[in-house]
Design brief:
The structure is a single chain. The protein has 670 residues and is an alpha/beta fold. The protein folds into five domains: 129 residues, Rossmann fold (3-Layer(aba) Sandwich), CATH 3.40.50; 100 residues, no CATH class; 41 residues, no CATH class; 212 residues, Rossmann fold (3-Layer(aba) Sandwich), CATH 3.40.50; 84 residues. Helices cover 44% and strands 18% of the residues. The protein has 20 helices and 20 strands. Helix 3 runs antiparallel to helix 4, helix 9 packs antiparallel against helix 10 and helix 19 runs antiparallel to helix 20. It starts with a strand and ends with a helix. The relative contact order is 0.08. One of its GO terms (molecular function) is ATP hydrolysis activity.
Length: 670
């Protein structure tokens, strides 16, 4: 669909990336990854034609429609939400007007036998079929479905866009792009202004979309659930991995390890040859062997080892004073804005050392309760901040409170104490302020850069209660890892308002859900909460479980050749319920015996398949150990596919064994 050849982009002396070549195919869902500043957003701008490369070619077919969502865009304020979304169907409206004009002309003309009349009929028929295939008559339903999926209520549709915050207006722009159904979607940080439910809806939308997708995001869970291919921009190179993000992380590590082993083996071989040449250079009896070794040495092609950007670091909060046992206690807290009740009857207790998450749709009161805790806004009810509490607060507008006349370095030097002052440059480098960036004035920094700087300041302050409101919006993955590691090692209490599931995973032990004017407590981590919530939704809706179990939704796995293999929905492995207490009839016993015979045969088939795949995996493992295959990515991909298929076969074998044992027990007990 889109072909990139020999792409080069230069800003100053050092190229951003050089000799980048890849192809974006139909239905590719590509995660574009790399550190901030590596060139991800630049690559998207080049692909959509907003920026020209220094060298190289971008080939895009003329009929290819590209939808591009940048991180920052100019937004309109003169329409309602529905009217703004309807702009996505401007082409449909023009086509409808064209069809109406042709229909009117056909009704008025009487030269039915003329060639021009017949040509008009043919043109009208063709365009009308195209119009109907586009589903143009149903666009209002599509608008409602997309807007509600992105978090809008139906009561919001007629509200002016000027009443919404920048984040909500970005959602409107995302909705417009999705509604246009482009052939290629280029999305730059689409989750920054979405809550968890909207992110999950967008995941499902992109997974079912027929469009190719190129995605930049720092939300690990999101890009892993959406992607089936990963392009890494690192150290000026673009490396293509034909796998989703999580598998790419493993392959990247394996690839470098193989290259290092091959490089070390080659260096040992070269050293041995050189030693032989030096030892026997002047012996006439060894002259022939020496010349052979020299020729072999000249023919050796040096193995290159990929450069890896590992400029992340470990960081810990400074020691803090011990706080009281209960840093935050809320009892019947309520907050109203005029006639609108944000929440009421909020009763919760956060213990010392707990790390909790506030989650829910935007506008449900997460930041409002944080402001109540900080004493920034009035409320009713009782809210106690515990004894000896020192609060470190990162608000979404925290960046606006920085002194604009200081440099980046001075801003951090002002709060750094003790030995940490010796590591200021390392800390700034971990958050993308290395080198000359540290000498910039705060007033020339972008909003994202200011947010990162405010986060660094907070990390250096001795506090025992952290309150972080959307801390990850402008951090790349390595920086998020630094922050997550620091919070996990933090001795105090933490309240984190975030929609980033991967960031919250393993970090929080309790989740408070904001919604419908209430705050509900869920024990466990973020994925425990999501699983529980999904079950609750199924109880209410009663449709998703049936759809998931339907034969129309086969499970698809990858074969060893890399092509999908439909394995069905495992309806042949129908594990029976608890054995019946009443005796089985003759027909029922026969049916159970047939099931047992069937599963005995099926188990043997699965065992044979597992043995065959294990043998194949062993062969590939031996091939990968050879130095000449160290950089053979096709072999690595084949190994991954075979390993995946083996895992699937083992799962089928285990399910079949469980079903067999259940039927045997059923026959024995009855």
């Amino acid at each position: 669909m889109i072909s990139v050849e020999g792409l080069k982009v230069e800003f100053g002396i050092k190229p951003l990336f050089d000799d980048a070549s890849f192809v974006i195919n139909d239905k590719d869902r590509i995660a574009l990854v790399g550190k901030n500043g590596a060139g991800k957003s630049t690559m998207l701008k080049i692909l959509c034609g907003q920026q020209k490369p220094t060298a190289g070619n971008i080939s895009v077919p003329n009929d290819t429609k590209i939808g591009y969502l940048p991180q920052v865009m100019i937004l309109q304020d003169d329409t309602t939400v529905r009217e703004e979304a309807q702009k996505a169907f401007a082409d449909n409206k023009r086509m409808k007007e064209r069809l109406d004009r042709m229909n009117q002309e056909l009704a008025e003309r009487t030269d039915y036998e003329s060639e021009s009349y017949l040509a008009l009929i043919e043109k009208y028929t063709t365009e009308h079929e195209q119009y109907m295939m586009m589903g143009a008559e149903n666009y209002e339903a599509e608008i409602e479905r997309t807007l509600t999926g992105l978090g809008f209520e139906r009561t919001d549709f007629e509200r002016p866009t000027s009443e919404f915050s920048g984040g909500w207006r970005m959602r409107i722009e995302l909705a417009k792009i999705l509604l246009q159904k482009p052939d290629v979607l280029l999305l730059d940080e689409p989750t920054n202004h979405l809550d968890i439910e909207s992110i999950q809806w967008l995941e499902q939308f992109l997974a079912q979309s027929s469009s190719a997708v190129v995605l930049v995001s720092h939300d690990r869970a999101f890009i892993n659930n959406v992607s089936n291919r990963t392009l890494e921009i690192s150290c000026g190179k673009v490396i293509d991995y034909k796998v989703k993000y999580n598998e790419y992380v493993v392959l990247r590590k394996e690839r470098r390890e193989q290259q290092l082993r091959a490089y070390e083996n080659q260096q040992k071989e070269v050293a041995d040859m050189k030693a032989f040449i030096e030892r026997f250079r002047y012996q006439a009896t060894k002259a022939v062997q020496v010349q052979q070794k020299i020729k072999q040495l000249e023919k050796i092609v040096p193995i290159e080892v990929d450069d890896v950007d590992n400029s992340a670091m470990h960081l810990k909060f400074p020691p803090c004073l011990r706080s009281g046992d209960y840093p935050i206690i809320c009892d019947e807290v309520r907050k109203d804005y005029g006639d609108h009740t944000v929440f009421d009857h909020v009763t919760l207790t956060i213990k010392r050392g707990e790390k909790v998450a506030f989650v829910g749709k935007n506008g449900e009161g997460k930041s409002t309760l944080v402001k109540c805790i900080m004493g920034e806004i009035p409320f009713t009810g009782e809210l106690k901040v515990g004894h000896n509490i020192q609060i470190g607060y990162f608000a979404q507008n925290q960046a606006q409170l920085l002194d604009e006349n200081l440099t980046v370095y001075q801003t951090i030097d002002y709060v750094a104490k003790g030995e940490i002052r010796l590591k200021i440059n390392d800390i700034l480098g971990a958050f993308m302020f290395g080198g000359e960036e540290s000498d910039k004035k705060v007033k020339v920094l972008s909003g994202g850069e200011r947010s990162r700087l405010a986060m660094i300041r907070l990390l250096l302050e001795p506090v025992n209660l952290l309150i972080l409101d959307e801390p990850t919006n402008h951090l790349d993955m390595p920086s998020k890892d630094v922050l997550k590691e620091a919070i996990k090692a933090f001795d105090g209490t933490a309240i984190i308002v975030s929609h980033d599931r991967e960031f919250l995973d393993g970090l929080v032990s309790k989740v408070y859900e904001f919604g419908g004017g209430k705050v509900r407590e869920h024990l466990g981590g973020i994925y425990d909460f999501l699983r529980a919530k999904k079950i609750n939704d199924l109880d209410q809706l009663g449709v998703k479980s049936a759809a998931a179990a339907s034969p129309a939704n086969p499970v698809v796995s990858a074969s060893a050749s890399g092509s999908p293999v439909a394995t069905g929905n495992m309806d042949s492995v129908d594990i029976p319920q608890e054995p019946l207490k009443k005796a089985l009839s003759y027909e029922e016993r026969k049916a159970v015996q047939r099931k047992i015979s069937k599963y005995e045969h099926y188990v043997k088939e699965r065992e044979a398949a597992v043995e065959k795949l294990e043998a194949r995996l062993k062969e590939l493992d031996e091939e990968l150990m050879k130095p000449e295959n160290a950089a053979n990515m096709e072999l690595v991909t084949l190994y991954t596919d075979v390993k995946f298929e083996l895992d699937c076969e083992v799962d089928r074998w285990e399910q079949a064994c469980e079903a067999l044992e259940s039927y045997q027990a059923k026959l024995k007990n009855n």
